[in-house]
Each structure stands twice: as C-alpha cells, then as structure tokens.
C-alpha cells in the first residue's frame, strides 16, 4: 500500500513538473512573440519616419495634388541654352536664384526666357533642382512663375522659366547702379497690386494644394514683375511639403534669408504655412517703408525693420512717418492704416496670431478695387473738365 502511494506521489510530481515546464515554455514563446512584434513595429515606424524625412528634405512631390493637370515640360540640351544666353554672357545676367545665376535668353523660336544655371555643387543644389522641377510641373497659377522646361546634361543643371521683363521687386525698391536692369518707380497703386498678387501666389500654395506647400524663402527678390508690373512668386528651391493636419508642422533644418525667417521657425525648426505669412509681412513692410529687412548701418533700434516698424504700425500718427519718401505722399491715410494693420498681424511674434493668406487676400482685394475705381473717377473728371473748359470761351466769343 505504501509502495503504491509513493508511486502515485512520484507520478504527480512528474506531471506537475511537466505542466510547469510546459507553462514556462508557453510564457517564453509569448514573450518572444511580443518582443518580435515590438521590434517589428519599431522598425516600421522608423522606416515611416525616414520616408517622411526624405520627403521633407527635398524628396518627391508626387503626392502633391491640385485642381489642374500636370504640365508637360520641355527638355532642353545644354547647347541650346548656351546659345540662347550668348554663351552665358555676363551682360545677360539678370539676377541670382537660390542656387545659381539667372540669365536672360532667347530661344530658337524667338521666345524670351529666364535661364537659371546651377552653380552649387553637392547634394543641396541637386535637391533644390529636383524640388523645383517636381513641384512646378504639378502646380499652375497665374501668380506663380511658370517653369517651361529644364536641362540635365551630365553635370549641367538648368531651369528655364517664363521671362519677367521688370525683374525682382527688390530691384525697384532699392535700385543698385551696377544692376543690368532699369528700376521703375513704384507708385502706391502698383505697390497695392503687387502686394495682392504676391498674396494670391502664397494663398494658392497654402489653400489650393494638398498637402500645402510652404515656400520657405519668400522675399522681395523672389517677387518678380512682368512688363506691366504684375507680380508672380518665384524660386521654389527651398519649398517644403507642409503638414496636412490643422495646426500641424514639419520639423526641418532652418534655411531662408535673414530678416524674413519667422522667429518660431528660427528657434525650433518647426515650419508651418504661418512661417510664410511672417515673410510676407516683411515684404509688405518693405512696400510701405522702402527699407530693407536688416540694415546694420542704421541707428541703434532701427536695424531690424520688423522691430522698428511694429510699434508704429498700429498708431495712426506714427505710421505716416514710416512711409517710403519715394511715394511722395500719394496715398490716403485710410489705405495706409489698413495695409499697416495687415502687416502688423502678419509679423506677430506668435504664429497663432497671424492670419491665413486667404484672409490677407480678402483684406487687400477691396483696397485695390477701391483704388482702381477712384483712379477711374479722377481720370474721368479730369478729361471731362478738359473737354468742357473751352466752352465758356466759345460762349464769350459769340456774345461779342
């Protein structure tokens, strides 16, 4: 009897040991499977992040969509463009883009074009070339400079754009004697129209493209003027795809031009469409004041255009004293106060307080429309007076 009990106890112990070992094996398998799932998920996330980073740092714009169809671009040879610019003659240099000289050229069919020759070696220049080609072939707006074609012969990278006869806005606000272009005096009406058309260009990028495109280097030299002084936004080499989430941002290294870069982007690298709004506000201040964004030659407190102008923009008395003397007072106080208020909102230090470009456009449209109407009324009154002025003389003569 004792032998049987002892045997049964041994069997129970063996069975218990088997159950314990089986349980441990199962737990080990579950732990191993969980760890595998964790690692797989982590790797997947890293790949997604890397893919997103590649997209942000000059990657593909294939996912950018808007309401028009993709444009066909002409592929040029280096020989064609060399001939069109007279061998890239210095006399044909009309400006500088984000990565090279821009030349005036004439194609074999007689079309005038602007040709940008990449002179920046390395990955950044290559990336900027790809960004402009991939982005501009998908976007089309009357307020964006049109890309007609490109050349990619071996080490030669060139972009061919429509020609803008009056060059960059900067050239006319701050004429330089050494420039190949002739500056034009910009009156108040022209400045209002340029401000509106440039705003429409940014509005298109922010509101009519999905996901939105952030220009990232908006400045007065990248606002080009045609023969009739109509404006288009240019130079998309630093453009980024923005976040498709409301209030979202993309993180990227800080690039741009001193004086135009939004403070939150400069500090954190967080880029949003509101970063472009800040840059636009700086250009609006240039149109109002005729001053460059940063001028270290000025007296202390006046070197930074934004810091100097911002306290004055909301003061009706003081704002009149910051106006560009070249305008010779050819504007109404009402217009100045309204434009100054728009500029003040755009250059707010806090991005959340800045308006959308759509709001800026809506604010400028009635100003431009009213000015045109007023100009027409004044013009009609002048011609009417000129027509009627001989009448008294004729009546007097007949009375004699």
UniProtKB/TrEMBL annotation:
It holds the Pfam family PK_Tyr_Ser-Thr. The chain crosses the membrane at residues 12-36. One of its GO terms (molecular function) is ATP binding. It comes from the Eukaryota. Gene3D superfamilies: Phosphorylase Kinase, domain 1, Transferase(Phosphotransferase) domain 1. Residues 378-392 have a biased composition (Low complexity). Keywords: ATP-binding, Kinase, Membrane, Nucleotide-binding, Serine/threonine-protein kinase, Transferase, Transmembrane, Transmembrane helix. ATP binds at residue 116. InterPro entries: Kinase-like_dom_sf (IPR011009), Prot_kinase_dom (IPR000719), Protein_kinase_ATP_BS (IPR017441), Ser-Thr/Tyr_kinase_cat_dom (IPR001245), Ser/Thr_kinase_AS (IPR008271). PROSITE patterns: PROTEIN_KINASE_ATP, PROTEIN_KINASE_DOM, PROTEIN_KINASE_ST. Residues 378-400 are annotated as: Disordered. The keyword Acyltransferase does not apply. Residues 88-368 form the Protein kinase domain. Belongs to the protein kinase superfamily. This is Serine/threonine-protein kinase CDL1. It comes from Cucumis melo var. makuwa (Oriental melon).
């Amino acid at each position: 009897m004792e032998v049987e009990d002892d045997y049964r106890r041994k069997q129970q112990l063996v069975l218990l040991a088997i159950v314990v070992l089986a349980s441990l094996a199962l737990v080990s398998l579950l732990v191993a499977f969980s760890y595998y799932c964790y690692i797989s998920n982590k790797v997947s996330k890293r790949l997604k992040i890397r893919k997103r980073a590649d997209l942000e740092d000059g990657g593909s714009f294939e996912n950018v969509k808007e309401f028009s169809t993709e444009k066909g671009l002409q592929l040029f040879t280096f020989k064609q463009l060399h001939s069109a610019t007279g061998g890239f003659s210095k006399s044909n240099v009309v400006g500088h883009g984000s990565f090279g000289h821009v030349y005036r050229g004439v194609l074999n069919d007689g079309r005038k074009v602007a040709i940008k020759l990449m002179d920046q070696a390395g990955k950044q220049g290559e990336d900027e070339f790809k960004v402009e080609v991939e982005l501009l072939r998908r976007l089309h707006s009357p307020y964006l400079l049109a890309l007609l074609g490109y050349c990619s012969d071996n080490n030669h990278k060139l972009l061919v754009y429509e020609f803008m006869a009056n060059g960059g806005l900067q050239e006319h606000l701050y004429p330089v004697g050494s420039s190949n272009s002739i500056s034009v005096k910009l009156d108040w009406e022209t400045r209002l129209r340029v401000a509106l058309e440039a705003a429409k260009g940014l509005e298109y990028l922010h509101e009519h493209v999905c996901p939105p495109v952030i220009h990232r280097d908006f400045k007065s030299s990248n606002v080009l003027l045609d023969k009739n002084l109509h404006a288009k936004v240019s130079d998309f080499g630093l453009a980024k795809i923005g976040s498709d989430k409301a209030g979202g941002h993309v993180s990227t290294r800080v690039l741009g031009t001193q004086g135009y870069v939004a403070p939150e982007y400069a500090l954190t690298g967080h880029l949003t469409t509101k970063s472009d709004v800040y840059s636009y506000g700086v250009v609006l201040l240039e149109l109002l004041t005729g001053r460059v964004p940063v001028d270290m030659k000025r007296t202390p407190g006046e070197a930074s255009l934004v810091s100097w102008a911002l306290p004055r923009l909301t003061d009706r008395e003081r704002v009149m004293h910051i106006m560009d003397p070249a305008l010779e007072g050819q504007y109404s106080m009402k217009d100045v106060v309204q434009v100054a208020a728009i500029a003040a909102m755009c250059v707010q230090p806090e991005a959340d307080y800045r308006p959308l470009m759509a709001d800026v456009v809506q604010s400028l449209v009635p100003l431009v429309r009213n000015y045109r109407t007023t100009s027409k009324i004044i013009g009609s009154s002048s011609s009417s007076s000129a027509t009627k002025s001989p009448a008294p003389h004729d009546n007097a003569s007949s009375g004699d």
